[in-house]
């Protein structure tokens, strides 16, 4: 259903997302993936802030325009289910690899 494109890079990919007040916050890209049969691309990110809860993970649909990335909030329930299922599968696979 979904094709993962998870890179195991040494350097994490960092993006900056502005909050409601315009302050940019730093996030690490956990994974990017595309859904088969669709041109939609998705990104899972987590805050880099050491005070942030480790379980805080955010999902966005994104589009690339040259070097820029535009993020879109996922509002459709069906779309959210696909993203959630893909992320849960990724976490399960990581846990199995780690022997948990």
UniProtKB/TrEMBL annotation:
InterPro entries for the chain: UPF0473
Source domain of life: Bacteria
Organism listed in the record: Paenibacillus terrae
The protein's name in its UniProt record: UPF0473 protein C1I60_24060
Family named by the database record: Belongs to the UPF0473 family.
